[in-house]
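hey so i finally got around to running both of the ones u sent me last week. sorry it took forever, my laptop kept dying halfway thru and i had to restart like 3 times lol. anyway pasting them below in the order u listed, first the sequence line then the structure token line for each. didnt double check formatting much so if smth looks off just lmk and ill redo it

first one:
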Amino acid sequence: MRNIRLRLAYDGTDYVGWQVQPNGQSVQACLETAIQQLTGTTTRVTAAGRTDSGVHAVGQVVNFCTESEIPCDKIRSGLQHFLPNNIVVVEADVVADEFHSTHNALGKWYRYVIHNARPRHPFLGNYAWQYEAELDVDAMQLAADRLVGTHDFRAFETQHPNRASSVRTIHRLDVARHEQFRTWSMWPVDNLPASDRGPFVWIDIAADGFLYNMVRAITGTLVQVGRGRMTADQLTDVLKNGTRDDAGETAPACGLYLMQVEYDDTNDLAKTGHS
């Protein structure tokens, strides 16, 4: 029995989300069907994060156990043969038996993309929040700095409480304009030069974990700051004392991307190789 890890990229537009749902097609169902077609056995797949309907990924991590002896490079290409074009297996390798893509994850990096320009872009409707009113990105960054660190983020969680604790640690939260989209890169980098007048606003947020709709709620709140409808001090008050109704709207799913999942290579990826 081998434990196989995959890195996936997918366009979430046509799916009800990662997780199998009774009301439509999911990314998980497509992948499990492809694995069954390739290996001849039914397999349950575990993912690092359960992306919602319309949310995209360039760095989703999943794992599954199989008795198949198919080499990893053939697993990648074989699965791709059975998958739809909007789900791509970027990498496949063998990991330690105890590796679990959810439980071993130390953190995640999400990017939210806003197309902040007039006119609206005809090709970005499913891939960015098209927000025409000009946003003050400097003000948004000043407010974003207030959220970095360990806090109770219950004001930025939909359907609170849905976990034992709403305390999370945000390691970084960067807001910047960019001339280019670049989020579609299979090998995402976050050190591209910013632009004073670029039409794309990237909100990059890395944390040890996220509550339900937390990134989208933070994005909607920072947009209120960017419009001058909320100050950094008011955002701090929402963080400390507020409820979900006090924060901004939940940003649309289409602009959100799971970029990368962080693991400790000394335990997770105690790799046995790529075979």
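and the second one:
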Amino acid sequence: MSNKKAVAEKEAEEASTALANVEMFEEDAGEGVAMGKEDIQLPRLKILQGNKVGEGQQSMPGIADGDFYNDATLDFFKGSEGIKVIPCVYQRRFLRWPAVRGTSPPIAEYLPDGPMPTTVRDVQNKDIITQEIDGEKCDNGEYLEETHNHYVLLLLGNGMTQMACHSMKKTGLKPSRAWNSLVGSRVAEGKNGPFTPARYSHVYKLETFAREKDGNRWAQVNVTLDSSLIEDNRVDLYKKAKDFANAVTAGEISVKHEGEEEIPNTDNTEGDVPF
């Protein structure tokens, strides 16, 4: 038997074995992964600050302030290089925090069009609660924080995607609103003329860059349009993003807010995450 024939037969045998293994994996598809929303943590897409990660605030080598990271998988992405995401759902919320913020979740969450406590903005740009919804006086220092939740599909270099929520607050509200403006200004051409496509019809690039003012340095997020799933005919990604959006809208998937190190406003503008 020639060497070429032996090699060909070996490669054919290996291919056959690999195919059989794949078929076995397919037969067991979904086994052991049937879970409800209470069993799954939706990853949060965060920006590294102070080179500290997680509840224990551990330093991480090989990464830099301003990098993005998935807080569930601890996958890191260079902020200067940017990440690509498909925005699927946007939610505006007001979170109620104690005067001294620890690692506990927020006390309450309010919808923008629902009843909320009365607040007064202090010199640190905090919206301090002065009166409860029922009219009772409040003087314990609790405050409201406007938070924009962007539920996204994070596009990975290997063709895979990750579901995540990127929350933007305090000085991060300005780029959040700019992102919403980009989304709302998209126009596509249909058989009945131009129309506004779904939020999840386009890919956007998120980058961070350093800013400095009054002795403070911070990472500012910049959002730009990357590509159109419609023009690129990416039906696969469009369907995946639509399914994620429907699950969030139906309440099947939600983000759990957690206590974090408080980020002060560095100025009266909005758009930044201090290091």
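quick thing i noticed on the 2nd:
The longest strand covers residues 83-97.
anyway thats it, ttyl
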